[in-house]
Write a structure and sequence with these properties.
Radius of gyration: 24 Å
Order of helices and strands: HHHHHH
Distance between the termini: 38 Å
Mean pLDDT: 81
Number of domains: 1
Number of strands: 0
Shape: flat
CATH topology: Helix Hairpins
Largest sheet: none
Number of helices: 6
Length: about 150
Amino acid sequence: MLAFLFLFVTLGRLYREMFKQPETRALLIMALVVLAVGVVFYVNVEHWSLVDAIYFCVVTLGTVGYGDITPATDAGKLFTVFYILFGLAVIGGFFATLGRLIDPQRFLALGGSAPEIAKLREELAALRGEAVHRTQRQAAEEQQEEHP
């Protein structure tokens, strides 16, 4: 539990640090603009609902592509080709910039000291050991119940 709290606090600090950098802020704004342009296009050209347009744009730029909603017009299909190419470049740039921020030394500086992390690792190892022991004990008890 403590490890999850530590992770969320560290990620919160990372996000704050990320938004202080102009390059990351610009890429996030560009990603939101790309999303908005796609939504406006699909609502107006394909006559989709707002929810369907947002859903399609997020699923497409997330490279999931369920295929349950697809453009029906030629204009929509052509736009989608360029939307994917441009949108993935912007989203990829955003995540690449985010990845550069997650430098191990920087992560330690944002989230805590090496001894704190070592202590958390020890606590996690102890919890894993307890879970394994508990599972083995439950398996033994079940086996005794099946074969008394």
